[in-house]
Design brief:
The protein is an alpha+beta fold. It has two domains: 3-221 and 349-433, 3-Layer(aba) Sandwich (Aminopeptidase), CATH 3.40.630.10; 224-346, Alpha-Beta Plaits, CATH 3.30.70. Helix content is 36%, strand content 23%. The chain has helices at residues 3-19, 29-53, 62-78, 141-160, 184-187, 189-196, 248-263, 315-329, 353-368, 417-433; strands at residues 82-86, 97-102, 106-115, 130-131, 135-137, 167-174, 200-203, 208-209, 215-218, 224-233, 273-279, 281-285, 290-294, 303-310, 336-346, 375-377, 395-397, 404-405, 413-415. The strands form five sheets. The chain has a six-stranded mixed sheet with strand order 1-2-6-3-7-17, sandwiched between helices. The protein has a four-stranded antiparallel sheet with strand order 4-5-19-18. Helix 4 packs across helix 10 (417-433). The two termini are 41 Å apart. The relative contact order is 0.19. The model is unreliable at 1-7 (pLDDT under 50).
Length: 435
């Protein structure tokens, strides 16, 4: 059996076992008090959400990102957290990150992850806030200022009942999740450092539902990266193609891409071929995502460049697929030479047994609060997120944020009731993890 399929089967069996163990139990008196405090503070949390959404914080609007960070920092300060702003180098053109910490010696150390930036830049025509009493529409309202507010609402309730005393809770709200600064090692250093000082990471990207309409959380996300194929071929008169002058760059590029399609397809793997530029000469500008080519129909093309996206669920799957792609590339047609390079922007968040155990604890907390169980969202269907930088270090769970839809579009919306629901679940989970 393929080792990757064996891992998937084992995780599926563990998931079934855990899902069957999430029967609801009565809340303790302290937990019931915690839920009451969340409900008490929900109106103020919704006001905070509106204030944050009214501030444009597109990734490339550093002043706006910092303003939202300052708004949330004051909230953390009031809860006894020590806050600091992590600056990025000027040349990165990114605002930086908000870090808030309370430290102690009791219970598991918990890391909470959110982000301050949105995809809506300063000149965006999307209205910042529209509410009908049931839903809110606005810039980044669900992706992910709603999740940030859930974090603060849960922590406020925990602080009210003294549950943060002697516990370690770290919060990192990044300022460039939507367009991560380069180099990524600098952009994510603070987040990775916080993970190394934690036992569990909880990320508050938007809540989801599975295909059956059940509330779900994220135990895995595929890596986000890419590949670049460069082909150089012997050129000459087109009458010589397939013969003394070989096959040319276009046929070689087509051979490689088609071989990928025929030989590589497997679960949770995609390798989209996005752009092809070819001719007697061909060039590509990464900064502009634009190519340029010159050629004539009676000349065998010398150059070809293909760029694509590559997503995989585990590091082992990624390594194996890159090796197979490399082997395909090396089987060049006569008169051609191909070379492939790879990049990884986000590492994979594999659906590990540890992540499933965190999901089980979250599902139990939700069921005990009368909000129903939580199932695992199919890992291959979720896009990239900051939690992937910490998942190789610490057990992680994502999707604890607000329920909504239309992310990254003018129709982005949030279900208002999901703020209270998400904060109750998060507060109970953090309470239990930190006992």
């Amino acid at each position: 059996m393929n080792p990757f399929h064996a891992i998937r089967r084992g995780l599926a069996l563990l998931l079934v076992t855990l899902a069957g163990s999430a029967a609801a139990q009565a809340l303790s008196p302290e937990e019931a008090q915690l839920v009451a405090r969340v409900r008490q503070h929900t109106p103020a949390a919704l006001q905070l959400l509106e204030r944050s959404v009214l501030i444009n914080s597109g990734t490339l609007n550093p002043a706006g990102v910092r303003e939202v960070g300052d708004l949330f920092a004051r909230e953390f300060d009031a809860l006894g957290f020590k806050t600091r702003w992590v600056e990025m180098p000027v040349e990165m053109r990114r605002a930086g990150h908000l870090v808030a910490e309370r430290t102690g010696e009791r219970g598991q150390r918990v890391l909470l992850i959110g982000h301050l930036d949105t995809v809506f830049e300063k000149d965006s025509p999307v209205p910042p806030w529209q509410s009908d009493g049931r839903r809110v529409r606005g810039q980044g309202v669900s992706d992910m200022k709603g999740g940030d507010v859930i974090v603060l609402l849960a922590l406020r309730a925990l602080n009210d009942i003294g549950a943060l005393q002697g516990r370690t809770v770290r919060v990192v709200f990044t300022g460039d999740e939507e367009r991560v600064g380069s180099p990524v090692e600098v952009a994510r250093a603070a987040l990775i450092d916080a993970a190394r000082q934690s036992d569990v990471a909880l990320a508050f990207e938007g809540a989801t539902k599975d295909d059956e309409g059940r509330d779900a959380a994220t135990i895995g996300r595929r890596a986000s990266g890419g590949w670049h194929l460069t082909v150089t071929a012997r050129t000459g008169h087109s009458a010589g193609v397939f013969g003394r002058d070989g096959f040319g760059a276009v046929y070689e590029a087509a051979r490689v891409v088609n071989a990928f399609r025929e030989q590589l397809i497997e679960p949770d793997l995609t390798f989209n071929a996005a752009t092809l530029v070819a001719g007697t000469s061909a060039a590509w500008d990464d900064a502009e995502s634009k190519g340029q080519a010159f050629g004539k129909t009676n000349v065998i093309p010398r150059d070809a460049q293909v760029r694509g996206d590559l997503r995989y669920l585990t590091a082992e799957q990624g390594a194996r697929v890159r090796e197979r792609m490399q082997a395909i590339v090396e089987q060049s047609l006569p008169g051609t030479r191909s070379r492939i390079t790879f990049r990884e922007s986000y590492p994979p968040m594999a659906p590990t047994p540890g992540n499933l155990r965190v999901l089980d604890a979250y599902s139990r907390a939700s069921a005990d609060a009368g909000l129903g169980p939580i199932v695992a969202f199919p890992p291959g269907l979720r896009g990239a997120g900051d939690v992937q930088f910490v998942a190789p270090i610490v057990d992680s769970l994502d999707g604890l944020g607000a329920a909504g839809g239309g992310a990254h579009s003018p129709d982005e919306w949030l279900e208002i009731a999901s703020i209270e629901r998400g904060a109750i679940r998060a507060a109970l989970l953090i309470y239990r993890l930190t006992r």
